[in-house]
Amino acid sequence: MDQFGTVDNLLQEERVFRPLPQLVIEANVNPQELEGARKFARMDHQGYWEEAADELDWFKKWDQVFDDKDAPFYKWFVGARCNIVYNALDRHIETANKNKLALIWEGEPGDTRKYTYFELYREVNRFANALRSLGIRKGDRVVVYMPPLPETVIAMLATAKIGAIHSVVFAGFSAKALRQRINDAQAKLLITADGFYRNGQVINLKETADEALMGACADCVESMVMVRRCNIGVEMTDGRDFHYEDLIRQERNEAPTEVMEADDPLFLLYTSGTTGKPKGIVHSHAGYMVGVNRTLTTVFDIKPTDIFWCTADAGWVTGHSAVVYGPLMAGTTSVMYEGHPNYPQADRLWSIVAKYGVTIFYTAPTMIRMLMRFGTQYPKPHDLSSLRLLGSVGEPISPEAWIWLYKNIGRSECPVLDTWWQTETGMFMISPLPISLLKPGSVTKPLPGVEADVVDKEGNPVPPGKGGLLVVTKPWPSMMTGLWNDEERYKEYWEKIPGVYYAGDVARKDEDGYIWIQGRADDVINIAGHRIGSAELEAAFGAHRAVSECAVIGVPDKIKGEAAKAFVLLNHGFEPDDELIKDLKKTIRNELGPVAVIKSIEFRKKFPKTRSGKIMRRVLKAEELGLEIGDLTGMDDDD
């Protein structure tokens, strides 16, 4: 199958939601300013991003905004000296933000901790000094294998402050997956915790970290630092393992911030390994901080009174940009939660929103779908009136999930801002603003300073309504600067369609220029010559009241070449039977027309998912066709 062809668009969504007049009046960017910014960025791309860079503090300004001499290894803010931690913490200590809350943390058992900017600054300084005492220097790699704890944020910031490079590995990954990442990065230090709470259980994390360092592997690691979270008995290796609390106890609360070159690496972030050997995405200090700061403050209309909660784990790029660096650079207050969203019951997230007066709630469609299964009785008892903005990230959100979130959590008043971006992009790329007209399921238009399009396999723009391939046609500041030790693999992003960044997503653009993401390019089903994105079929299933989640794959068909098989997870109160199957197939025909042939429907209790909550369709397909399943290091085994 030619994965670079065009894709049939079948699903039509015609509902439009206008922002409340008060939201538009109070917005930091009004509609005229947004159009002005887009026009300015189109006329003077470098000038727009230079203006964004001027919002931040620099040790030395740049000699050149942009350098494309070694394309596709583009460079931004050439000659500048900076450090993202200076902008995330140090500069706030000289302003009114000094005594403002930076972080509100809640553990699964209900314990809480809060840090002002000044308190967080001093904690980061103490750990930065401790890292230096362990021999960590500029350019060294530090792997952070941690649950969502304040120390996770502190570890990332302290590492970056001294010029070392952090690589956060999600705490749900196996010892094998952790070892693989440690070895590829040649990490000198591993930071972990004794354990953490998840769904009422204590997960022993130190045990997994020890296993990762055993055998013919990970001999690059000289030291391990362990945070006491659960106070469980763990083995400590003399000379290698150190208690976090013991290390920082005697350290000073002031520490110099390393002066970094603009393109010095800030972090490595490995992809989850669902499609082969994990890729180490590299982001640098200058470009990343400029892009993330401008887009997060613009999209989420950050105000001094906001309480911002992004539910992502720090092990993903969303955690880096929307939990740690973005909110801190913006000087806002963030919420972080350790545990399972359904513990002790399915209203935990809504109780946290009400308890802390969260104003901006940013989560993933997989979380929304999971909570939808439990109905509206769980959010109803909680006062969610503090919310003013809702956001979605990570995968396409179906119109039905969008509407559920908008009505039941946002009271039909809070815009749902569906953001498209990637680990590779670092920052938000395509997204509405609070002032935008919203169409459920669409990420609307590229942000100012971002040039994106939907094209065919030759790179020609496709007509409105026709599916194609999503590309970014101009470099942007927070783009990855490369793949760790793999230049050739990095070039592939720019060679599949020469001269543009190939995102790997299928999309379409409607008559208003709104972009609709239809899924990954390799999740396309060819039914009798009609190439249909699996996300579109899944969204159609989601329109049925019985369906909680759905995954669709292509299976061989003697007549049509391929047909669709659906795997369905039902909402509570529904049971699988022949009548339901007939009704589901009727729904698909009504939503998409006769071309969307559903060969069979299989009901499931759970799906194979990545640790970030995305359904692993390739695993379902391999099981269905009796093929080799392949790498499962990125798979979630949490019920």
Automatic annotation (TrEMBL):
GO terms for biological process: acetyl-CoA biosynthetic process from acetate. Signal peptide: none annotated. InterPro entries: Ac_CoA_lig (IPR011904), ACAS_N (IPR032387), AMP-bd_C (IPR025110), AMP-bd_C_sf (IPR045851), AMP-binding_CS (IPR020845), AMP-dep_synth/lig_dom (IPR000873), ANL_N_sf (IPR042099). Its EC number is 6.2.1.1. Residues 96-484 form the AMP-dependent synthetase/ligase domain. GO terms for molecular function: acetate-CoA ligase activity; AMP binding; ATP binding. Residues 39-88 form the Acetyl-coenzyme A synthetase N-terminal domain. It is an enzyme of class 6 (ligase). It holds the Pfam family ACAS_N. Residues 536-614 form the AMP-binding enzyme C-terminal domain. Keywords: Acetylation, ATP-binding, Ligase, Nucleotide-binding. The keyword Glycoprotein does not apply. One of its GO terms (cellular component) is cytosol. Transmembrane segments: none annotated. Belongs to the ATP-dependent AMP-binding enzyme family. This is Acetate--CoA ligase. It comes from Pseudodesulfovibrio profundus. The gene is acsA.
